[in-house]
Amino acid sequence: MERGHADSPFRRFPSKLCATLDCSRGLRVDGPHHSSFPNANFRIEPVAAALRLPGIDANTTDLPNKMRSRRTIMRSNTFLALAALLAATLAPQARAEQPKQIVFVCLHGSVRSQMAAAYFNDIAKKRGLPFVAISRGIETDASIPPRIRDGLAADGLKPLDDVPQGLTAQDADSSVKVLAFDNVPAERKGSAEVTYWSDVPVDRKDYAATGDAIMRHIDQLVPSLTAK
User: Cα-flanking dihedrals φ and ψ of residue 100, to 5°?
Assistant: First the structure.
C-alpha cells in the first residue's frame, strides 16, 4: 500500500473504498482497497460524499480551493465578532449623544412655531447644543405663508416643514420641553408640562417684532437647558 505525501490533508481512505488517482480526471472509487493521493490540484468526486467531508461538493470539487474557502470563512467570522463587539461598545455612547427634542406649538403651526424652531435650531447648531426643535400646530394650515418663508430666508434660514404638522400627545411626551404660543388641548399634550410664551404677538404685518419677541424667549431658554 502506498503512502501519500506528508503534507497531504488525508493519509488513506477507509478500507471499504478504493480511490484511484487519475491526474486528468480526478479520483474515482474502484473497490475495497486502501489508496492515498498527493497534495495536488486534484478533484474529488463520490469519495467526498462517502467521507462526509463538510463543505465539499460530492460531485466535483476542488479541495485546496475549499480549504482556502474555509479559512476565508473563519476570517470573516472573526471580523464579524469584532464588529459586533465594537457596535456594543459604541451603542451607549451613540444613545447618549442623541439630541433631545423640543417642540414649539402655535395655533396654525405655520408662523410662530416655525420661526421659533428655525431660530432655535440655528443657535443650537452654532453652539453645539444637544437639542433639536420641531414645529407643531393645533389647527394646522395647509402651507407656510410666503412672508414667513421670506422673513426666514433673510436670516439665512427656512421653515422646518413644507406642510405644517399637527401636535400629537406622542410629540409632547417625547419632548423635554413643550413651548406654546397658543392654548394646547389636554388630549394633545399627553403628560407633558406646557410652558406658554403668550406675549409673543402674531405676525401679521411686522415680522421683525414677532421675531425679536421669540428671540428674547430663546435667549432665556438656552441657559436653562445647558445648566441641567
Answer: -85, 145
What is the pLDDT of the chain when averaged over all its residues? 77
The model's pTM is 0.60
SS (H, E, C) 85-149: HHHHHHHHHHHHCCCEEEEEEECCCCCHHHHHHHHHHHHHHHHCCCEEEEEEECCCCCCCCHHHH
Q: What is the mean pLDDT of residues 63-71?
A: 59
Residues 223, 104: Cα–Cα separation, whole Å: 17
Portions of the chain given CATH number 3.40.50.2300: 99-226
Phi and psi at 136, nearest 5°, equal -140, 160
CA dihedral defined by 25, 31, 32, 37, rounded to 10 degrees? -10
The stretch 97-122 carries a mean pLDDT of 96
Say if domain 99-226 classifies as CATH 3.40.1190.10.
no
User: 63 to each of 11, 57, 68, 70, 150, how far by Cα in Å?
Assistant: 15, 9, 9, 10, 71
Of the candidates 105, 110, 87, the residue with the CA atom closest to the CA atom of residue 196: 105
Cell numbers of 78, please? 472573526
